[in-house]
Amino acid sequence: MGKHSKSYSDVKSQVDRSRDYSPAEAVALVQQLKRAKFDESVEIHVRTGLNVRHADEQLRGTIALPHGLGKEVTIAVFAQGPKAAEAEAAGADIVGADDLAKRVEEGFTDFDVAIATPDMMPLVGRLGRVLGPSGKMPNPKVGTVTMDVAKAVEEAKAGKVEYRTDRTAIVHLVIGKTSFPAEHLLENYAAVIDELVRAKPSAAKGKYLKTITMASTMGPGVKVDATRTRDILGEAAPTAA
């Protein structure tokens, strides 16, 4: 395992690894410790107590972040005829049918979200080996297989993001940029936690939210108190004072 740079080690030393920070404190610290010259993303990594090998303990859904992601979202839509025109009018970046499928088969994945009309799914289904691993496969459960392509495109452009547990039961999500006002990051964080608590599978046993880590793209991880799931926004005022 390679050594970290001196600048990273210096920044990491400012994080107390023995404590769990409040959400507001974590946001402030992550912003303070950003290192890159570019506008870093702020990520959270939530380790759940779910047994993802059981179908009834899978966690997957979408959430519209109150303040978006702070980046331009590139959207590909599999549609034809009037629905293709509808997608283009709504702001989709790439629209196609067989031609788009062929590009994806050849390895094209330069988009953040893929949306498809139901009649396109026999075609899109064959692209699972390309779209599946990157989490870009359209899915009716999260609203990316729909006849209302205009609404799906508009929501994705506004910052609607998909979340799901990985094989180790961790949910990875970007909640904004380090340049965001602290209260906007905190509101996005609160929205994510509210959604994860709401979506808790009924079959879940034991502790549900085990650990939460917040970090910027190039910065060290900051442990967030996973028990703080209520009145998160109410903590901002005392911290700012």
Automatic annotation (TrEMBL):
Alphabetical list of InterPro entries matching this protein: Ribosom_uL1_bac-type (IPR005878), Ribosomal_uL1 (IPR002143), Ribosomal_uL1-like (IPR023674), Ribosomal_uL1/biogenesis (IPR028364), Ribosomal_uL1_3-a/b-sand (IPR016095)
Family: Belongs to the universal ribosomal protein uL1 family.
Classification via CDD domains: Ribosomal_L1 (cd00403)
GO CC annotation: cytosolic large ribosomal subunit
GO biological process, one term: regulation of translation
Gene Ontology terms, MF aspect: rRNA binding; structural constituent of ribosome; tRNA binding
Domain of life (superkingdom): Bacteria
Subunit composition and interactions: Part of the 50S ribosomal subunit.
Record keywords, A-Z: Repressor, Ribonucleoprotein, Ribosomal protein, RNA-binding, rRNA-binding, Translation regulation, tRNA-binding
Classification via SUPFAM superfamilies: Ribosomal protein L1
Keyword 4Fe-4S in record: no
Gene: rplA
Taxonomic path: Bacteria, Bacillati, Actinomycetota, Thermoleophilia, Solirubrobacterales
Protein's recorded name: Large ribosomal subunit protein uL1
Record function comment: Protein L1 is also a translational repressor protein, it controls the translation of the L11 operon by binding to its mRNA.
